[in-house]
């Protein structure tokens, strides 16, 4: 899939000329190398990102280690809460596999959404789904059983295991990589 297909899939149908104009506003793809920060801790982010190729993890920098709180992978949009609340972000986005990424200033992104009633409805639906996912994630964090946390992730997002290295998945699941390996074995 490319940016056009993902936009149509998530927000469409959109009149062709309006879609073309919106696509033109996105930056050309840039290559971001492994271990580089796409979004930096304590910076106010003003862009929405589209990951064409590669993977990244969303982390909360802690004193002892970065805590993985989410992932980005091909054909997904990625943004910091900064684009909504205009505050410095408490998270970072770290590239874990070299990525091709496009960006769009939040002003153009929200102008596009606010200009199309159908797109507004679908954006609202995306936000609702994100809220439900965050509630599921909070439940995951409260579950004491590593096996149950793994089971829930496998049900919700099995594709993550094909895209993301196990050490990041283990951090996301609040366990060591060794524990993840042990409980994955039948």
Folded structure, characterized:
It is a single chain. Helices cover 48% and strands 25% of the residues. Strands 1, 2, 3, 4, 5 and 6 form a six-stranded antiparallel sheet that branches. It is of the alpha+beta class. The model has no long low-confidence stretch (mean pLDDT 93). The chain has a single domain (3-179), classed as Sandwich (Jelly Rolls), CATH 2.60.120. The protein is globular and about 55 Å long.
| Radius of gyration, taken over Cα atoms and rounded to an integer in Å | 17 Å
Q: How many structural domains?
A: 1
Helix content: 40-55%
Order of helices and strands: HHEEEEEHEHHHHHH
- Tally of alpha and pi helices: 9
**In the CATH hierarchy, what is the superfamily?**
Jelly Rolls
- Write down the CATH class: Mainly Beta
Q: List low-confidence stretches.
A: none
Biggest β-sheet, characterized? 6 strands, antiparallel
User: Could you give the distance between the termini?
Assistant: 35 Å
Structural class: alpha+beta
- How much of the polypeptide forms β-strand, as a percent range? 15-25%
pLDDT averaged residue by residue: 93
Topology-level CATH name: Jelly Rolls
The beta-strand count equals 6
Classify the oligomer.
single chain
Form type: globular
What is the name of the CATH architecture? Sandwich
């Amino acid at each position: 899939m490319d940016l056009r297909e993902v936009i149509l899939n998530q927000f469409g149908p959109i009149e062709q000329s309006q879609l073309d104009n919106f696509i033109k506003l996105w930056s050309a793809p840039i290559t971001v190398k492994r271990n580089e920060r796409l979004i930096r801790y304590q910076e106010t982010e003003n862009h929405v990102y589209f990951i064409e190729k590669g993977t990244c993890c969303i982390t909360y920098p802690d004193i002892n280690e970065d805590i993985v709180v989410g992932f980005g992978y091909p054909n997904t949009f990625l943004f910091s809460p900064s684009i909504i609340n205009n505050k410095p972000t408490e998270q970072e986005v770290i590239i874990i596999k070299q990525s091709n990424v496009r960006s769009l200033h939040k002003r153009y992104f929200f102008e596009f959404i606010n200009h199309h009633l159908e797109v507004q409805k679908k954006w609202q639906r995306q936000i609702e789904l994100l809220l439900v996912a965050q509630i599921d994630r909070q439940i995951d964090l409260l579950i004491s059983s590593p096996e149950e946390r793994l089971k829930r992730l496998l049900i919700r997002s099995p594709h993550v295991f094909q895209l993301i290295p196990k050490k990041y998945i283990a951090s996301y699941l609040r366990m060591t990589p060794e524990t993840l390996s042990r409980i994955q074995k039948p």
